[in-house]
Amino acid sequence: MLIETLDRLVVITSLLKEFVYRGGLIYLLTFLVTASSLEIRQSVIQLLARCLADKQVGRRIQALLGQFLPGIFQETLRDTPDIFLQLFDCELIPPP
Length: 96
Description:
By secondary structure, the protein is mainly alpha-helical. It is built from 7 helices and no strands. It has one domain (2-89).
C-alpha cells in the first residue's frame, strides 16, 4: 500500500525531489533488500525505475544510487527493470 502511494506521488517532480532529499531512496533500497515478498520487491524496482526516468531529478538519483549500487545495477534498473531482480539476486564471484 505504501509503495503504491509513493508510486503516485513521485509523478510530481517537486514531490520526488522532496522524497529524495528526505532519504526516500534509502527507504526503498531497504525494502528491496529486506522484503520477503517478490511482489513488494518488484514494486520497489518499478518505482526506482520511474524515479530514474524523471528528466529533472533522474541524474541526481542515479548519482545517489551510485553510492550504494554498482553502475551495472543502475543501468539495468534504468533500462530493463524486469531483469534487475534476477541480476541483483544472483551470486557473482569477481574474477581474480
